Amino acid sequence: MKRGDLLIIGVVLVVALVLLVPRFLGNNSSEKKHNDQRYALITVDNKEYKKVPLTEEEQMITVETSHGKNVLKVHNNGIEMHEADCADQVCKSFGFITEPYQTIVCLPNRVLVEIVGGEEGADLDVITK
Amino acid sequence: MSLQSDATLALKRVVIISIFAAIAVVLSIVESMIPINLQVPGAKLGLANIMVLTCLMFLRGRDALSLIMLKTLLTAFIFGTFSSFLFSIFGAIFSFIVMYLLIRGFGSSFSLIGISIAGGIAHNIGQLTAAFMIFKTTKIFYYLPVLMITGIITGIFIGIAVKYLVKSLSGLTLFEPFAQTK
């Protein structure tokens, strides 16, 4: 270990923390809107594929395109990747997401799942239309 | 040794690149079989980086670059992941550029540990940037800070591995003409 190594580690840690800290602070404000209906916005190749309300009860959404097939599972007001035919399976490691800043990405299949709040979602719809 | 012709040297380079590429591919396969889930999407050990970094220590930049191209192509063939080929190559080349500049420019200020950390994180940033160009949303970078922290940890281990590997390889006849006094 040389001094330069410690410098790299230090710089990386500082940058990571600077990016992480506002996120923890920002979490409180999103608590307020917790009663809002949230949606999962599924996009494939940058085009909106489907927008599903995140319901308590379970529902399966199949995203089948020329890139591949993904099955998403909605339950407990959140969503997770249930099945994917991609090779790396990285999309499954995103886990179960519930908050508006979280995403699920399946790079090989060009699938992006974002969570949007009720209002934000309405705005989005207006824009895309 | 001094009578060694350029042709022999060139041949040795090709042999080393080929062996390293083969090992890098095997390491990628081994890595995909290790059932460690780091709970961070996109985080990986980056075992193949051991070979790239070792190659940079012995051979020229363009040799390491051909090693990267070979390795990325071969893994794409084996895993059948051509759709994500663009992302792999983007990450690999970005990581290579950062490590190459650090070694050639500031080689004396950093040990292999620092270089492998920088290379690993550059790999993450390169891949995320490629993903950003496809998805066009900055949300892609959401996991970057966490990836940076896991990158430090994996980078330290990869750096140590390279240190030992360079030391043992330097004793082999094949690597003798390329051994550095660093």
Please give the CATH architecture of the largest domain in chain A.
Sandwich
Here the CATH topology of chain B equals: Arp2/3 complex 21 kDa subunit ARPC3
- What's the story with the biggest beta sheet of chain A? 4 strands, antiparallel
Helix content of chain A: 25-40%
Global mean pLDDT of chain B: 85
List unreliable stretches of 5+ residues of chain A: 120-127
Please explain how this structure is put together.
The complex is a heterodimer of chains A (129) and B (182). In chain A, strand 6 and strand 7 form a beta hairpin. In chain A, the strands form 2 sheets. In chain A, strands 2-1-7-6 form a 4-stranded antiparallel β-sheet. In chain A, strands 3-4-5 form a 3-stranded antiparallel β-sheet, with no helix packed on it. Chain A has 2 domains: 1-34; 36-128, mini-chromosome maintenance (MCM) complex, domain 2. Chain A has helices at residues 3-32, 118-128; strands at residues 39-44, 47-53, 59-65, 68-75, 78-84, 103-106, 111-116. Chain A is built from 2 helices and 7 strands; from the N terminus they run αβββββββα. Mean pLDDT of chain A is 79; it is low at 120-127. Chain B is mainly α and 182 residues long. Chain B has a single domain (6-177), classed as Arp2/3 complex 21 kDa subunit ARPC3 (Orthogonal Bundle), CATH 1.10.1760. Chain B has helices spanning 6-33, 48-58, 61-79, 85-106, 112-135, 144-169. The chains are: A alpha+beta (129), B mainly alpha (182).
